[in-house]
Design goal:
By secondary structure, this protein is an alpha/beta fold. It has helices at 19-33, 50-65, 81-86, 118-133, 171-180, and strands at residues 4-6, 38-42, 72-79, 100-106, 138-143, 147-149, 160-162, 167-169, 186-188, 202-208, 213-220, 226-229, 241-249, 268-274, 279-282, 286-293. The chain contains five helices and 16 strands.
Length: 294
């Protein structure tokens, strides 16, 4: 049975915004007959502008009075790769009383084809570390657009492209695949101490006590490789470890998949055994997932 419903879309910022007033009417009518229904609200086309902040405050105030008023707020954002990488603290500033769903579009109207590159996908991967670090308030994440013909580019990046006979995944598709397939139970506090501000990398460390595994995601959007030294007193001690390493990378950040070359940028998985985990080598222009089985 249907258990979740979104009310409205993100394009409701006009000179006479009536969405918030109408949301309240829909919420009352729906919960009169379906009190179990989880409702998703919208903060407009950008949750960081004046209207978006107003919408979030509207939902926060009503949620205090009625805990069933909204399950989560859909946060849409038209953002560039640079904005993603330079705003890693944006979700930490959101009101903690609410939950949020996140969807981002790429702001690259001058060159739509550039939005299907490895560089754009790494920007997305770096930004998604922010989602994992704020999983206490980000309950869902989605992507738009998902699928489109190779000659159709109103929004980018698409995850899947096709023509009349063939289909392939973009680098962004494989970023989503690597995140979705390797979810853990807990996000651990961690930090990377960087020697150079020009070579920033992005990461998360997650843990599953059920599988007794640690997952380390590291995104390096830079042209140089880096070595990550691990300093952990209570997690990765000496022992027998199985390390499964999945890497999404290419020699050129502008690399992308095409109908003629659909496997230019795809994840490659390898595994090895180790008696300790002290250093992890990260390639340039890469998204690396280390799964450490303890």
């Amino acid at each position: 049975p249907l258990h979740m419903l979104k009310i409205g879309n993100d394009a409701h910022e006009t000179n006479h915004p009536e969405y918030l007033e109408r949301y309240a009417m829909f919420e009352k009518a729906i919960h009169t007959w379906y009190p179990h229904m989880k409702l998703i609200g919208s903060a407009g086309s950008s949750f960081t502008n004046e209207y978006g902040r107003k919408a979030i405050e509207f939902f926060r105030e009503n949620q205090v009075k009625n805990p069933n008023f909204v399950y989560a707020i859909d946060l849409n954002q038209l953002i560039s790769r640079e904005w993603r990488l330079n705003n890693q603290d944006i979700f930490a500033k959101l009101p903690k009383e609410l939950q949020y769903s996140f969807c981002a579009y790429t702001d690259n109207e001058n060159d739509r084809s550039a939005s299907n590159t490895l560089a754009e996908a790494l920007g997305m991967a770096g930004y998604m570390t922010n989602l994992e670090k704020n999983a206490d308030v980000i309950c869902m994440a989605n992507h738009c657009p998902v699928i489109g013909r190779v000659d159709y580019n109103p929004l980018t990046p698409y995850l899947i492209r096709f023509d009349d006979t063939d289909v392939f995944g973009t680098p962004a598709y494989y970023v989503m695949q690597m995140y979705a397939g390797k979810q853990q139970d807990y996000t651990l506090q961690s930090e990377i101490r960087e020697d150079s501000t020009d070579q920033r990398v992005y990461h998360t460390v997650t843990y599953s006590p059920t599988g007794n595994t640690v997952s380390i995601k590291i995104i390096n959007p830079n042209a140089d490789a880096c070595t990550i030294r691990i300093d952990s007193d209570n997690l990765l001690r000496r022992g027998d470890y199985r390390i499964i390493q999945t890497i999404l990378t290419a020699a050129d950040a502008a690399a992308q998949n095409t109908l003629e070359h659909p496997n230019t940028v795809i994840p490659v998985t390898d595994s090895y055994d180790a008696d300790e985990v002290r250093e992890l080598v990260v390639k340039p222009y890469s998204f690396t997932l280390f799964q450490i089985e303890m």
